[in-house]
Input
Amino acid sequence: MAKDGGVSCLRRSEMIGIGIGELESPPLDSDQVHVLAVDDSLVDRIVIERLLRITSCKVTAVDSGWRALEFLGLDDDKAAVEFDRLKVDLIITDYCMPGMTGYELLKKIKESTSFKEVPVVIMSSENVMTRIDRCLEEGAEDFLLKPVKLADVKRLRSYLTRDVKVAAEGNKRKLTTPPPPPPLSSTSSMESSDSTVESPLSMVDDEDSLTMSPESATSLVDSSMRSPGLA
Amino acid sequence: MEKLCDYFFIYFCPNLMICKNLFIGIAISNKLYIFFFSLLLPSRRVERAMDTLIAQLQRRFCDFTISLYHQGFLDDQFTELKKLQDECSPDFVAEVVTLFFEDCEKLISNMARALDQTGNVDFKLVGSSVHQLKGSSSSVGAKRVKGLCVTLKECCDSQNYEGCVRCLQQVDIEYKTLKAKLQDLFNLEQQIVQAGGRIPQVDI
Output
C-alpha cells in the first residue's frame, strides 16, 4: 500500500485485514499522528479506524490487549526495538475485552517506560461511574461512551496535537532535523494551505494531507502549525 | 433483448446509440415505458424524462430513509456512519453493515447452540455473545436489534431460559428484516446513480 494520507480508501480487503489484526502501517513518517486502536469487535474496529483516518490519523487496529502489547514490544518486558517505527501518539482501547480488559492494558502501558507518556483513551458501552473513575485514576486521558461519534474523535484530536507538539520536540533530537521555523498563526495557515511546504521538515505527505475532506482540513492544518514536526 | 434494442436504435434513433446501454439498464430496472418512449423522441425530451425518473427515485429514497428512522429501525448512529462515507469510500456504510450482519449470523448461531444444550445451558456464553451483538448493533445504528439485545441480556442474567429462546428468535427475525430493508435502500441508491442522479442528503 502506498503512503497513506489523511483520508484513505478503505476497501473490503483492507477491512478484513484490519479484522484479522494484520493491517499495520508501513514504515512510519514521524510527521503523522499514529493511533493504536484496540477492540475485540470487528465492526467497532472498522468504525473507529475510519473515524480516526477521517481526522487524518494513521491507524493500527488490533483485536486484543495482547496483540497491542505485542505491537508495542511490551509483551516480554523488553523496550521497543525500533523506536522510530513504533511511534504511537495515542492508544484508544475498548474496556470490555476477553482475556485482557482495557483497564489491564492501560495499567501495563502506564507501567512501561517507553509508552507511559502516551495518552490512553478508554471506550465503553456502559456508563459506569466507578469504572470511569478507576480508569481516570490509573492515568487514562479520557473516557468515551460507545457508540463513538465523529465529534468525540475530533475532540481527541484537538488535545492530541498539544501532546504531540511536546513529543515532536523530543523526537527532533533523535531524528537530527533542523529546528522548525516559528509557527504561523492558525488564521494565516488556514488561508494558505501551502504554508505547510515552507517548513524544512515538509515531506511528501503534504499532497496527501491537502487532499482530505473539508471538515478535517482545518484541524490538520492547525495541528501542523502547532507541531512543526508534522508536515 | 440486446439485439432488439440495437435494431430499435439503429432504425429509429441513431443519435441515441451512445446512450443505449444506459437505457437498457433503466429498462431492466422496471422503467420500460421510459425506454420505449425515449426511442421515438428527440434527446431534449429524453433528458426531461430522465430527470423525472431521477426525481422520482430520489423522492422514494428520501421517504424510505425517513420511514426507517421513524419506525425505529435506525437511529442517529447510522447517520454518523454516513458522515464517514465519501468519494474515496463510497460504499463504506454498505460494507460495515454487511460485516454487522455476518456478525449477527455468527453470534445468533452461537447463542442458539448454547441454548440447545437443555439442562446444561452456558448462560455466560450467551451473555457474552449478546453483549458483543449489542455493541455492534449500537455501533451501526441498528436500533431495534440493539433494543432486543438489551432484553435478551436481561433474560440471560436472570437465567430465564424461555425468555432467552423467545428473545433470540425475535433478534433473528429483526436483523433479517433490517438486512432486507437496507438492501432495498442500497438498491435505490444504485438506481439513482445509474440514472445519473446524486444521492440526496436526508435530514431526519
